[in-house]
Amino acid sequence: MAEADRAADADDRLAAIWAGLDVAPNGILVWGDDRRLLYVNDRFRKTCDLPASVGMTYDAFVSAMARSHECFLPCEPDEWEREEIADFGVEKQRDYLFATGAVMQVTHAGSRVGGMTVTFTDVTAIKRNETALQLAKEAAEATDEAKSRFLRAANHDLRQPLASLKILIYNCIREPVEEHRSDMLHAMGVAVSIMEDLLGALLQIGQLDAGRIQPRITSFQLSQLFERLDIQFRHQAEEKALRLKFVAPRGTIATDRALLERILSNFVANAIRFTEVGGVVVGCRREGKSLRIEVVDTGRGVRPQDRERVFDEFYRATEERRMQKNGLGLGLNIVKRLAELLEHPVRLRSEVGRGSIFSVTVPLGNIWHSEAGREVEISEAVAGEFVGTPVILVEDDDILRETMTQLLRRWGIDVHAAADESEAIRLVEGGVVPQLIVADYNLKTRTGVDVVEGVRQAIGAATPAMIVTADAEPRVLEGIRAAGLPVLVKPVSPPRLRVLMHNLLFEPSLTKLSGR
Amino acid sequence: MAASQDVVPIGSMIPLTGPSAADGAEFRKGMILAVEELNARGGLLGRPIRPIFADTCRQTAEEVVGAARWLIEKHQVHAIVNGYNIGPQNSEYEPIADAGIIYVHANTLLQHHDTVMSDPERYFGCFMADPADYWYGPGFIKFISWLRDSGQWTPNSDRLAIISGSKPYSIVIANAMAAAAADFGWRLCFGPKIVQTPTSQWRDVLDEVRATNPAVIANTHFYAGDLAHFQRQFSEKPMDCIVYLQYGAMHRTFTDIAQEAAVGVIVSSVIGLLRDDMGKRFEARYNARFGEGSTATIGCQSYSNMHHYAVAAAMAGGSGPPGDFEQNRKVAFALKGMIYRSVHGTIRYHPDWQAVVPYPVVTHDPSLGMPHIFYQIQDFRKPLSMIAPEPYNTERFVYPPWMSGRGTAVRPAPPANSRGLTGL
To answer: What is the pTM (predicted TM-score) of this model?
Structure first.
């Protein structure tokens, strides 16, 4: 009885142990020394869709697992099966990716009595974190590397516009002719904007190295890009007495405008750098649905053995190193990487001593989708009927003069404002040739009618003119009209002003209708 | 409530007399058809709509402003919905902004942008339901470049001659063409020269143009009769070039006067009836209502503007009489927010301009812009051929009969083409 009680008690305790093991966080399989399964817990059944029943042999279990397609095996199923069977009782640990997406760490441990316990532990979350950490580490390393590349490339690429700027500043200081100076200042402005764009592009290249750049493909006219390149390089070519010619292409291309500009500016910069006599021509050839853009120079050429390597990072030909030419040898490497990104074939043909042709082939685009630079922000200042029309405005009230000037400028008018007659005459003497005079009537010393007369004399022509007045007295208005001048009463309505100005400038026969 | 109190009065300022009376008659028909259709479906939230027409005659500032005041003060209109009026230069915006009502027109003027953007609060209700005249410029330059680059036409040079009429509309278009030309490989060889219009005498300016031997002549004057004389005088001694005539050459009057000389002329409009199912059904309804001699492509403008306004007012919970700024602001908000596919393409108001955006010049998505349509007169007795843009075109460009050695409509591919283009 007591023995029976003890046996029952032992059974209860064993059942309690099994029940406890059933809810352990791991799947557990216990094999006897006869390689038969003694115990499998509930957790295993719930997490792994593998056949495991008490009494089955270890070999049968391994075989079933090898062919279950439930998990990825590190080698061929037969080989894996052989290894696993041979390793019964041997301590080992391996991770398996299951079809459910879970990663299981499977641990084998031999028991004192010649059997073996196998545990299945879900390590999915841990593995995910590890992967994320690894990716973050790689990204950080790539960013670091990109930063270094960026600094090298910045040094290289900013030299081109900087060199232009230096030449321009030097020439500008000595330039006596106002017109030439203003041309140079304009070119300096362009050089600075190119540097700005370059910095932007270089930042992109940093991202390119980190694999983060997405080209923005648009359709546009190549001629716009050629114009920018011409301005960027004209002065450098002139310095070396080289001809630089852009053959204006027709047609629309579809690519990333900024990245293509980077490719071409590297080609042109190289062509100028390595050409001593002759010139550089940039032109295009149509090839089916693509356009091949060629930069042709009469420089020293590239030796056949160097033709592949010129596109490598930091590569410089031997004589170039000897001559300590500027540049770090990054330009063509940047070209290569950009061209790969854009999927544009890049080619080099060359003859030593005769010159080289670097080319990039880009797809043709849809002309209807072509961006014409000015379209996004249209206003009357860009395209109105009065664009560029010179007008002399005489108004002694500072605030009114300022407001009126702003209004007229918004319509694209070239406003020359004066506070009184003598100032207006000085403007004329200084070279302003107005197409229209707008004068206030109640000026401090003279009437607007007198001022118009004076300014017209200074110009030497009966330039169209109009009067604005705050004095709506019929006698005053009659007097102005009697002098043959149309008049508007303040506050001036912009549409009325516009109609009157239009008529005076373009349809004088209508002035009588609208000037009243 | 008496039925008369329920009526929603909508004004329409239309040149019923004067030089644009032909267009005015169509704008009136478009309004009538739209209002009849709307009222047949219950009007504006159950209230019948009543159109009130004001004659703008020669469309001067005085006449148009007078019409706006009359509609607002005498008829208390909730909105003014038009076709176009040239001449007032936005001076009609003032009484409309003072009254706080909605104004929808197709004036096709760049200065609309300037006025609205100068004070968006004040001009909240002013909408231009077609693209500004400016867009004709880049649109035209792209069109001739497309003919060239797609091999449909091989120009004899890159020279472009531009003649402008003396109205702001013509000058703006001519300037915009000139501004876009170089980017697309065209060289301005003549103009833009402003000719005092109206005129029927073009021989002097044609002689000047002839001396420059252009590949393209564009005339941005837009009176049908004047342009017909231009084309007849051009035909007396034609040049080997494309002839583009602004808008007016779409009119029956143009072909009536120019006859055979009209064949080959290119003309465009930033607003015009499409030839798809919706367009054809509209045209059939329009002709059934007003007779076969009617011009649905003009009438569709006021028709669509009225429909769009009515839908927006319904969305806003109703329209507002003069002085009800609050309600009309809601209507304006709905007009701005709702993309509306009319029978002549999409009305989508630019958020700042309160003007329609053209396709394909500004937006590349035909569902977001109103098509700038290019036509060619291929048979002067038949409707114009719609040759661009895709996906709306129904015909293809053919060589004008006056072009040297290219008298046939379909030309074989030239044997040696230096540009590698394929002739059609």
So the answer is: 0.74
Is residue A382 less than 8 Å (CB to CB) from chain B? yes
pLDDT tens for each residue of A380-435: 888 888 988 999 999 999 999 999 999 999 999 999 999 999 999 999 999 999 99
The CA distance from B405 to A131, in Å, is: 72
pLDDT digits (tens, 9 = 90+) for B242-290: 999 999 898 888 999 999 999 999 999 999 999 999 999 999 999 999 9
Å from A159 to nearest chain B CA?
29
Q: Which residues contact A373 (CB under 8 A, 6 or more apart)?
A: A224, B183
Interface size A-B, in CB pairs within 8 Å, comes to: 119
Domain A142-370 CATH class label: alpha beta
A380 CB within 8 Å of a chain B CB = yes
Nearest chain A Cα to B178, which residue?
A383
> Is A205:A341 a contact under the CB 8 Å cutoff?
no
The CATH class of A380-514 is alpha beta
Average pLDDT, chain A: 86
pLDDT at B411: 44
Name the residue in chain B with its Cα closest to that of A508. B196
Tokens (6 digits) for B365: 């998505």
pLDDT digits (tens, 9 = 90+) for A179-230: 888 888 888 887 887 777 667 666 666 666 666 677 888 888 888 889 889 9
* Structural domains of chain B ordered from first start: 3-131+274-356 (3.40.50.2300), 134-269+372-388 (3.40.50.2300)
User: Cα–Cα distances in Å, from B328 out to A149, A504, B35, B261, B307?
Assistant: 59, 38, 19, 50, 16
Is A373 at the interface with chain B, CB within 8 A? yes
